[in-house]
C-alpha cells in the first residue's frame, strides 16, 4: 500500500532512527527529533492471531528496530540495551539522543499480565522520570487498558487502526499509578514443597509470584520467602480458583479459546463447574477467608489493626484500579454519608491506598452489573497482612493481575504470612476516556451527593525488603555506565 504524505509526516513524530537503537548501524539521514518517540512491545501470542498481526503492522509503519516481540526478547534486556545506548550517545554530546531520552514513551500490547510485566520492569529501572506507558488491550479482562481509557475490546490490527491508536498516544496525558509489593514467608517445610503451582498457561512473566534465591536480600535462613508485585489487584479465594481452572483449560484445549468473546463465555461456564454460583454447597465453610487467615490492615502512618471479615466471604480482593474482571468496579462509589461514617476516601490510583472488597459467591458478584452495585467494602489500607491459621487447609488459590496460582501451605506451620505494601509509582498514559482518578483530581471528583448510593451491602514504614518490584532480576547496567545520569 502506498503511504500518503500526511501519514508519513504523522509517523515521523514516533519514528526512532536505527542508530539510536543499534550501535552497529551507521548514522545517516537523521530526520527531525520525533515529538513522541515510542518503543513498542507486543505479546505475539495474545488475542489469538491478533498479537502477531499487530506486530506485523507496527513493523510496517515504524522502524522495525523499535518494535519488539516479547516472545523473542524480554523487556528488561531490551531496555537495558536501549538505555545503555542512549547514555553512551549522551556522553558523546548527541543532542538527538538526549531529546529521544527525554520524550520516550512505551506502548505495550498484550493481556494484563503482559502489561504488568512491562510496568514492573520500568519500575525497577528507578529512573527519575520513567517513560510513560500506553496499553493495547489484547487479553481477556484488559483491566489496565480499560482503567486508563484505552478500551477493553481487542483492537483492529490493520494500518488505519494502528494510526488511530498512535494518534491517541500523541494526545494522551501522563498519570501516575501506585504499584504494590507482595511478600509471603513461611518456615521451610519438613517435607514436600510449598512453591507456587502455576496453571499450565501462566506466562513466564518475571514479575509473577516466585521464591527468592538464597542470595536475595529478602531471603531469611530457615524460611521460604516468595515475592511478587501488582498494579491492579491481588485476590485470594474462589475467584482465583476459577481463574486457575480457566488458564489450565485454555492450555489443554486452545481450540476452545479463539477470541475474547468465546474466552469470556468459557470463563463463565467454568465459574459454574467450579461451584462459584452454588458456593454454599460446593465450597466448604472451612475455606472461607475468615477461616483461612487473620487479616490485619495498616492505614497510612498508623498501627496494625485487625480487620473483621464476615464469615460468609469466600473471596477477598485488594484493589488498586477501578476495573476488575473485565471492567467491573467492586468498590463502587460510596455516598458522602458513608465516607464520613467509615472514614473512607475516593479510590484514587495514586494515593498509596488499596480498597479491600469481599464477595460471598458469583451471585454476589453479579451485583456489579447494576449501576450502583459493589461488593462488601471492608477497608482502605496502606498495608495488608494475612496470617494463615495453622493446618486450616492444604492449599489456597491466589491471583495477581489476572495471573493465578495454587499455593500449598504447610500443615504444621502457624507462621505463614502474606504481606502487601506500597512500593512506588510509575507513569501511565491516559486518554480522555480514563476511568481512573488521581489525587490531583480531588477538587472535581471527591464530592458526591449524600444520597448518591444506597450502601446496604456494606459491613463493618517501608522496610528494606520492599524496595524492589522484582520484575527485572536480570536488569543490570554495565559497570562503565553511570546510572545516576539516566534521569
UniProtKB/TrEMBL annotation:
Its EC number is 2.7.1.107. It comes from the Eukaryota. Residues 33-186 form the DAGKc domain. Phosphorylates the second messenger diacylglycerol (DAG) to generate phosphatidic acid (PA), another important signaling molecule. PA is required for plant development and responses to abiotic stress and pathogen attack. May be involved in the accumulation of PA during cold stress. It holds the Pfam family DAGK_acc. It catalyses: a 1,2-diacyl-sn-glycerol + ATP = a 1,2-diacyl-sn-glycero-3-phosphate + ADP + H(+). Residues 434-467 are annotated as: Disordered. This is Diacylglycerol kinase. One of its GO terms (biological process) is defense response. One of its GO terms (cellular component) is membrane. Keywords: ATP-binding, Kinase, Nucleotide-binding, Plant defense, Stress response, Transferase. Gene3D superfamilies: 2.60.200.40, Probable inorganic polyphosphate/atp-NAD kinase, domain 1. PROSITE patterns: DAGK (PS50146). Monomer. Belongs to the eukaryotic diacylglycerol kinase family. GO terms for molecular function: ATP binding; ATP-dependent diacylglycerol kinase activity. Residues 434-448 have a biased composition (Polar residues).
Amino acid at each position: 500500500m502506498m503511504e500518503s504524505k500526511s501519514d508519513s509526516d504523522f509517523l515521523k513524530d514516533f519514528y526512532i532512527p536505527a542508530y539510536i537503537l543499534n550501535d552497529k548501524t551507521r548514522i545517516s539521514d537523521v530526520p527531525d527529533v520525533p515529538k513522541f518517540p515510542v518503543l513498542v512491545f507486543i505479546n505475539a501470542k495474545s488475542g489469538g492471531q491478533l498479537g502477531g498481526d499487530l506486530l506485523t503492522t507496527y513493523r510496517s509503519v515504524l522502524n522495525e528496530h523499535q518494535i519488539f516481540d516479547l516472545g523473542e526478547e524480554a523487556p528488561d534486556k531490551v531496555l537495558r540495551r536501549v538505555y545503555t545506548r542512549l547514555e553512551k550517545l549522551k556522553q558523546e554530546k548527541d543532542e538527538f539522543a538526549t531529546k529521544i531520552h527525554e520524550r520516550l514513551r512505551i506502548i505495550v500490547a498484550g493481556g494484563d499480565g503482559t502489561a504488568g510485566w512491562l510496568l514492573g520492569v520500568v519500575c525497577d529501572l528507578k529512573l527519575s522520570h520513567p517513560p510513560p506507558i500506553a496499553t493495547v488491550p489484547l487479553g481477556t479482562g484488559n483491566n489496565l487498558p480499560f482503567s486508563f481509557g484505552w478500551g477493553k475490546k481487542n483492537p483492529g490490527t490493520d494500518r488505519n487502526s494502528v494510526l488511530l491508536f498512535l494518534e491517541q498516544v500523541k494526545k494522551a496525558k501522563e498519570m501516575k499509578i501506585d504499584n504494590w509489593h507482595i511478600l509471603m514467608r513461611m518456615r521451610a517445610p519438613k517435607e514436600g514443597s510449598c512453591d507456587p503451582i502455576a496453571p499450565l498457561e501462566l506466562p513466564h512473566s518475571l514479575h509473577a509470584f516466585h521464591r527468592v534465591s538464597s542470595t536475595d536480600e529478602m531471603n531469611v535462613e530457615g524460611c521460604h520467602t516468595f515475592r511478587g508485585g501488582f498494579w491492579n489487584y491481588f485476590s485470594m479465594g474462589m475467584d482465583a480458583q476459577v481463574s486457575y481452572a480457566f488458564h489450565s483449560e485454555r492450555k489443554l484445549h486452545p481450540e476452545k479459546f479463539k477470541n475474547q468473546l468465546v474466552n469470556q463465555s468459557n470463563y463463565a461456564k467454568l465459574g459454574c463447574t467450579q461451584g462459584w454460583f452454588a458456593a454454599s454447597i460446593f465450597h466448604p465453610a472451612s475455606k472461607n477467608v475468615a477461616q483461612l487467615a487473620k487479616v490485619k490492615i495498616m492505614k497510612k502512618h498508623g498501627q496494625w489493626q485487625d480487620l473483621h471479615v464476615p464469615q460468609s466471604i469466600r473471596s477477598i480482593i485488594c484493589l488498586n484500579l477501578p476495573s476488575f474482571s473485565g471492567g467491573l468496579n467492586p468498590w463502587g462509589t460510596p455516598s458522602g454519608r458513608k465516607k464520613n461514617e467509615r472514614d473512607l476516601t475516593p479510590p484514587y490510583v495514586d494515593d498509596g491506598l488499596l480498597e479491600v472488597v469481599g464477595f460471598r459467591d458469583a451471585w454476589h458478584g453479579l451485583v456489579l452489573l447494576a449501576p450502583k452495585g459493589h461488593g462488601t467494602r471492608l477497608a482502605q489500607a496502606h498495608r495488608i497482612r494475612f496470617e494463615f491459621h495453622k493446618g486450616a487447609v492444604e492449599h489456597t488459590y491466589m491471583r495477581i493481575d489476572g495471573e493465578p496460582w495454587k499455593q500449598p501451605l504447610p500443615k504444621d506451620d502457624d507462621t505463614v504470612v502474606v504481606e502487601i505494601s506500597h512500593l512506588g509509582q510509575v507513569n501511565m498514559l491516559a486518554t480522555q476516556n480514563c476511568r481512573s482518578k488521581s489525587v490531583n483530581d480531588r477538587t472535581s471528583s471527591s464530592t458526591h451527593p449524600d444520597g448518591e448510593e444506597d450502601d446496604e451491602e456494606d459491613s463493618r514504614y517501608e522496610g528494606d525488603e520492599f524496595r524492589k518490584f522484582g520484575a527485572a532480576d536480570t536488569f543490570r547496567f554495565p559497570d562503565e555506565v553511570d546510572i545516576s545520569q539516566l534521569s
